[in-house]
Fold:
Amino acid sequence: MCLKEPFFTQRPVFGTENDSEDDAESQNEDDNPPASVQRKGELNLIFNPSFKYIIPVVWFPQPKRMPDWLYKYFGDVIQPLILTKDGSKLAKPAIFGAKTYAPASFWVHTPEPAFSLSRHHFDPSILYRPRVFLWLPHFFVDALRCPSCRKVLEKNGALAPRRIIDVDHSYYIVTWAYYCHNGCKSHFHGWSQSLLNSLPAWICLSFPAVLSRKSGLSCNVISQLRVGNQHKMGPTGVRSLLLEMHTMRFNILQAQYMEALFEQV
Structure:
């Protein structure tokens, strides 16, 4: 669970009033796909000799800092939720429909560690799986309209997941890019501030994060920063708090895994 980059940085927050095609491509400009990714028309599979399994290519190139098991998780679990079709249209994800045992939710939750360990599934990657927030606002309005000219927006492909830092863990947001084909020809990310502001308030308030250039902080962390500044704690103190909370969560997961494994041995 070791992170190669600090989970809390002092990078400035950039405005996203208008997302051009260059912006859409630059969000992962330093995350180059592996050389083994196949082009269109070729077999959409990657073989990783170190992990001894075949990884399906998902809707985004594998970032160089994303482990294989996480990339495979997006392909196996998240991709069917956002790309399954109902006739000629994209189907609404199953988690958006309420069930008696699982209320409708934006969140794709991971199994609790105790359930996996009780079944003797000693795969550490199961414990590391992050939550995923599916931000698909076009399913909640009659027509998603351009913030600039109010023409109907068209879906323009799913974006690469954005990692968000929360109080004691990290999660990912998955959304679509949109294009004003019949109007001003503008491009928008699903999480761009101008598009969020154009939505009804009851939808906009459901968005859980504030984004930076390539990452983001959850609203809970932003609240801690605000309160910390009010009480002279400052960003450095909040960073230390987040580091402590993330480390504690990792230690608990590690202890659960080791205790369950020791019981079997």
About this structure: The first helix runs from residue 21 to 26. Helices lie at 21-26, 68-83, 113-118, 124-128, 193-198, 201-204, 219-230, 234-264.
